[in-house]
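User: Gamma-carboxygeranoyl-CoA hydratase. Structure?
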Amino acid sequence: MSDFNTLELITDSRGFATLWLSREAKNNAFNAQMIRELIIALDRVQGDPSLRFLVLRGRGKHFSAGADLAWMQQSAELDYHTNLDDARELAELMYNLSKLKIPTLAVVQGAAYGGALGLISCCDMAIGADDAQFCLSEVRIGLAPAVISPFVVQAMGQRAARRYALTAERFGGQRAREIGLLAESYPAETLDQQVDQWVVNLLQNSPAAMRASKDLLREVGNGALNPALRRYCENAIARIRVSAEGQEGLRAFLQKRAPSWQAQEPRS
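Assistant: Predicted structure:
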């Protein structure tokens, strides 16, 4: 368990953490406290070398209903510079989640509105329920999805982002999968089972190799070729081949046995 008021950070003995949004009575809506606690929680995750990956979830019926109405009302009464400070805090959260060294998986059920789409988009992968409801709802209340927009565009593409940011239409899990926001969409009653399968699959992989691959893909970006990128990729494979886990993985493959990171998992 954790010492947060709006979150739960739970570490699994197999080597991963689940970060739960835990304001169930408020449908896990954002407020200043939750944003600050998320930043602190991600910093703890980043500093824990035992963790292989992070799962981001919401307690209760909904992943997150977006911004808390009481917090928004307070923000409306603040001046420009104070609002700018709030925006910078939210941006720190999104950028820290996006650049986390270990893989991240968001799991979405119920409503995911406004800033919640930012959290989902900042994760490397996301899965959700078919009946989940997504909405970039900001324009309905006179706002814009400003801080989250770079991550949303990366996740769903420019055309889809333009459509849903400008119309504030709701769309479901299967549509979210079609546009790339979700990797997969499942019947709601099977979602927890599917999460378990994703976890088991990720636990098969070399922790160091997943971190290296995430760094690699961040550097590759959209894949535009240039001499510097070629050199980076050449160095990346050379480094991982001579690393401890790279050597162990190659030996295990040639010797037809499980590598150490799989063999060391405790049996249930």
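Residues 229 and 235 are 10 Å apart (CA to CA). The beta strands are 7-12, 16-21, 53-58, 104-108, 111-113, 125-129, 133-135, 171-172, 184-186.
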